[in-house]
Each structure stands twice: as structure tokens, then as C-alpha cells.
TrEMBL record:
It comes from SAR86 cluster bacterium. The active site is at residue 210. InterPro entries: Ald_DH/histidinol_DH, Ald_DH_C, Ald_DH_CS_GLU, Ald_DH_N, Aldehyde_DH_dom, ALDH7A1-like. Belongs to the aldehyde dehydrogenase family. This is aldehyde dehydrogenase (NAD(+)). Gene3D superfamilies: Aldehyde Dehydrogenase, Chain A, domain 1, Aldehyde Dehydrogenase, Chain A, domain 2. Homotetramer. One of its GO terms (molecular function) is aldehyde dehydrogenase (NAD+) activity. The lineage of its organism: Bacteria, Pseudomonadati, Pseudomonadota, Gammaproteobacteria, SAR86 cluster.
Amino acid sequence: MGEKHSDLVNKSKAAFLKWRALPAPERGNYIRLFGEALREQKKEVANQITSEAKKIISESEGEVQEVIDMCDFATGLSRQLYGLTMPSERPNHRLQEIWQPLGIVGCITAFNFPVAVFGWNFCLAAVCGNSIIWKPSPHSEGCAELTKKIWDSVAGEYKDLVLIKKGANDASVELAEDENIALLSATGSCAMGKAIAPLVSARLGRNLLELGGNNAAIICPTADLDLTIKGVTFSAAGTTGQRCTTLRRLFVHEDIYEEVIKKLIPSFESLKIGDPFDRNIQVGPLISEQSYEAMKKTLDDCSNKAKKIHGGQKLDIEGGIYVQPAIVEVDSHIDEMNDETFAPILFVMPFKKLTDAIKLQNSVKQGLSSSIFTNDFRESELFLGPEGSDCGIANVNIGTSGAEIGGAFGGEKDTGGGRESGSDAWKAYMRRITATLNHGIELPLAQGVEFDSES
Ligand code: NAD
């Protein structure tokens, strides 16, 4: 197996101590170089992603592009790690926030975004002055090795800023229990988060959790159905249903239910399924036999409760585990809709009132992504308002998957509450100092408190 845990940590700590002393814009410059190297090797990295995570090549290229975008974002951010200056209530005082790096960031990643999730974490962690120890999914260690090689090609004396810790669950546990890991960022299933988070909390450490989703979309009567069907099909069947943001539950207004079903079924049936390296293919294989077993179990379990099941069968295609994405029509929110089955199963259910659909959407434990398809702005405003979606991502006239890096990514409730990628997500990778500076000759106390022996 890999290097001893304590050796990795010592190397990472030494890298951190050197790296944090570099001015942030210089750190940004290294990340810019990393982005340029990725641009040059985009094809190679995408091929590795498709080999291991088995997503179609266009999505793998998109995944590398996401890391390149993160590099550009972090390069700009390297001159914008702003702290606020607040007016002090005391004369001749300045009150300000100063942001400092944390130390070593541990980064556990899932199989399905083997490079992008590292990119979200690394670009922010590094620009903020931290080092990173990356524990990739056992399914995608080759992606981690290749990414590390590309970092090494531009990193000069800072190669150890990125270190890889290979292994199964016990490798994550070692990171979670180690006090040297200042922040543990963990991406994966809710079950993984529930196993890891208590270990970090027990040592009062910080974690950043990006866990499972159980995402829903609502289709209202005014929706543009051509656009909607495209959005639903990509979100539900794209990446073979193996995105955290995959659409799993669809609520359709009863007035358009039959019309939607009539369009959705042929859209699913016409999906091109096969070799993910073939550019005409839209849906590649599942990651493992175990994933297929999970899909089959969910479909079997709901077979007596569903109105109708379309698709879901294993396909006779060589070189992987291929399935026909399933549509399961139901009259009510059945138990099988409460869990995330990491495979292409879309439950579809009619609704009468939008408020009921929103309630059902929010009724599950996870809170990652959600969508509404409507041309009625009152409906979309309701969906985005305080009585609307309880998810970290809420889209209008777009499916639940395919986020851009500019916004903060993450979800609520069992999804873990973490935010990564754009906006001000960088703040999770730093510690905040509140500093009050006195440049006067008096020592006035805050809130008018008197502590003067002469008075
Ligand atoms: P997984 O939970 O099986 O594994 C994720 C990582 O955690 C791997 O590195 C694995 O080795 C480790 N791990 C798993 N169980 C563990 C345990 N009990 N103790 C310690 N370490 C453990 O997930 P996966 O199958 O690789 O990926 C799919 C899951 O990840 C889905 O639930 C998906 O929704 C989620 N995901 C979430 C996001 C997000 O940003 N919210 C992104 C991608 C994937």
C-alpha cells in the first residue's frame, strides 16, 4: 500500500509551512500554471476519467474543464482574499478581519467526479495557503495519480502540496481522526458522512461535507415542454444516473401529466447507450455490478407499488454493466423514493397544487438540488422563496444537474451543509482573525465600560 500516514502528514505539514509564506498572488500563479498544464493535457485526463469512472467522454472533458475553470477562478481569487474593515465604536481604533490559512486539508473524494471535486477543493485550499492530502475513491486512483503528476510538472519546490493517500474506508478514517488535519472535506454518500463526521467532531475538528442527494423537479402547466423534456432526460439519465445532482423524483402537474409522460418515454427510449468513449453515445455503463444490484433491488421493491415501470433492464452490451434508464410512474410518494439509489431511476408522480409538490420535494432527508419548470414567475418566485425549495441548489427551467463553478456548490440536511467551488466558499478553507488596532494614546473600553482606578 502507500506511504505511512505519519510520513504523509509530516511531508504535507512541511509543504504547508513553506507554501503559506508565499504571497497569495504568487500562489495564484502556480495554480494558473496548473490550469494551463491541464488545458494541454485535457484529453489525457478525460480519457482516464472515462476509463475509471466510465462517464461519456464529453462529460469527462467537461469535468476537466471544470478544474481548469476552478484554476482560473482561484488565480483571480488570489488577489481577492478580502477581509472587511468595520467602523470601530472607539476613537482612533480600527476593527478588521484578516484571513489566514488553516494547515493541512484532507480531501476524500467519490468515484463519480474523480477530478472535479479534487479541483474544487485543491484550488481553493491552495490559493488560501493550505496543503492537501487527497484520498481518492478506490475506483479512480489512476485519475488522482495523473492529476498529481500534472501538478508536479508545474509545482517546482511545492510538489508535496498535493499528496495522495490511497486506500479504502480505513484511509478516510485515519484522516478523520488525525488532529493534524485542520479541515476534512469529504464527498460521498450520506452513510460515509455519518461515519466520518463524528470522528472529526470528536476532536472538535472542522469538516466540509458534500454528501448524497435525492433531487426533484416540478413541472408546471406553463412549462416549455421541449426544453423541459431535454432538461429532465439529461438530469435523470445523463452520467447513467450517477451524479449527486441526478434527478430522481419528478412531480408533474396533473393537467399535463399524460403529455409529459408521452414525450418523456420516447426521449428515454431513444437514448444512445454504449461505449462511453464513442462520441455518439449519451449513456455509459454503471460503475459496478453492485450498482446494478442496488438498482434492481429498488425496482423490485417498488414493483407492486408502482403504476408502471418503463425500462430498467440490463442490456446485452459487452465491456461493462449497461442498463436502460428507468421511469417509474407512481400515484404517491412511496418509500423507495426516500433514498438515493445511485443509478438511473426516475420516479414520476402527478400533483394538483404547487405547494403540495414543493412539500413532497422537501420531504426527503437529503437537500442538494431541485428544479422548477414554469413560465409563471409567481411559481418560480414561490419556489425560490422561504416557503420554497429547501435545497442548496434551486434552478428554474434547468435540470437539477450540471452546475457551474461560479456559484457555491452543496446542499442542506443530510447532504451535509458544505459549500465548495465558487462565490465565497473559499472562506471554509481559512481561519478568520478579528483584529482591533489602537493607534491613539488612550485606552477606551468597548460598550463604555469604565475600569480606571482614578475615577
Ligand atoms: P462512497 O460514499 O461509497 O465513497 C466516497 C468516498 O468515501 C470514497 O473515497 C470511499 O473510500 C470513502 N468511504 C465510503 N464509505 C466510507 C466509510 N464508511 N468510512 C470511511 N470512508 C468511506 O461514494 P461513491 O459511491 O464513491 O460516490 C457516490 C456517492 O457520493 C453518492 O451518494 C453521491 O450522491 C455522492 N456525491 C456527492 C457529491 C456532492 O458534492 N454532494 C459529489 C459526488 C458524489
